[in-house]
Methyltransferase domain-containing protein
Amino acid sequence: MTEIQAFAREFFRDPFNVASLVPSFAPLCRQAAAPLPETGDPVVLDLGAGTGQVTDVIQERLHGRGRHIAVEFNPRMAAVLAERHPKVEVICDDAHAVVDRLLDEGVRTDLAVSGLPWLATAPRRGRSIFEPLARLTAPGGAVTQLAHAWIRFFPDARKVQRNLEANFEEVIVTRTVMANIPPAVVYVARRPRVR
């Protein structure tokens, strides 16, 4: 079974927790990882890491530097991810719970890449995941959120953008990455509004 077939199988098993029918392609992954600092020992949080397409790009750009934490809720995908990337801290858990734990530990991230589906970014217990991600973001850090281009204008997608804007001073949307199936964009959020 190919990786795309395995990914599609997991999507059909649990479409609310698997964001896409197929994994993200390299051009989209590079766009999502673009804010990663080229120097120092950055801390990178990879949410909804799937089987590791964004993880591949982050690892390539880190060249053994820093700390890379990848979070995947689906245990089958997390197992594939851990096997492919033994040097990455792979956590099979709910993204909200992991972000809260990292905050309790005093971790600050230089980049958080979110491949989470829209429903996972929606407010839970009165807050969006972007609120704790804003508190987790180091000065000069960024949060990126992948999104299929065609759903950007739906009401739920607009809520995601409003949630980002409520927690970050700067939110931009990249050009559509046509070399992805389906075409996609990346929301890039900087300068957290920490309360």
User: Anything to note?
Assistant: The radius of gyration is 15 Å. The first helix runs from residue 3 to 13.
